Amino acid sequence: MIGQAYHYLLLGAMILLGVLIIVSIIRSVLGPGISDRVIAVNMIGTIIIMLIAILSLYRNESYLVDVCLIYAMISFLSVVVLCKVYTGVYLQRKNMKANLEAVEDNLQHQEEEVIVVEAEGQPEQKEEEAVR
């Protein structure tokens, strides 16, 4: 009796997680931004890890826990790579360099932009003071 309830509980959890994977796939396709898509892909990986763990209990197969751990590492690395690619695309759109050696160059470029903006704002302040 309890074994049968346990069986149905695990089966229901796997079905629910399958539906959540479909919803996450839809979110990753329709997401308004790249960050939403990366989060959806991460969520899909996490749900698959949970599915493998539940399947391990359902089938009484302990080797699936090892598969689950390996998949968790691969999922983590894929999200790190996607974030790195996203950061590179963002920096490229901002006309900045994306390697570590160019951090100082990027900061200098940003400081130059701030100086230009401040220099453009100063004549307006002088005109306002002249009017007073």
Structural class determined from secondary elements? mainly alpha
Helix content: over 70%
The largest sheet is: none
> Which series of helices and strands comes N to C?
HHHH
Low-confidence stretches: none
Question: Which descriptor suits the 3D outline?
Answer: elongated
**Number of DSSP-assigned strands:** 0
Portion of residues in beta strands equals under 5%
Calculate the mean pLDDT score and round it. Answer: 82
Radius of gyration: 26 Å
Number of helices, where a helix is a run of at least 4 consecutive DSSP H or I residues: 4
As for the number of domains, it is: 2
CA distance, first residue to last residue: 89 Å
Entry keywords:
2 domains, elongated, mainly alpha, 4 helices
General description of the model:
- The chain is mostly helical.
- The protein folds into two domains: 2-94; 98-132.
- The chain is 87% helix and 0% strand.
- The chain has helices spanning 2-30, 34-59, 63-93, 103-131.
- Helix 1 runs antiparallel to helix 2 (34-59) and helix 2 runs antiparallel to helix 3 (63-93).
- The longest helix has 31 residues, at 63-93.
- The model has no long low-confidence stretch (mean pLDDT 82).
What's the short version?
With 132 residues, the chain is mainly α. The chain has 2 domains: 93 residues; 35 residues.
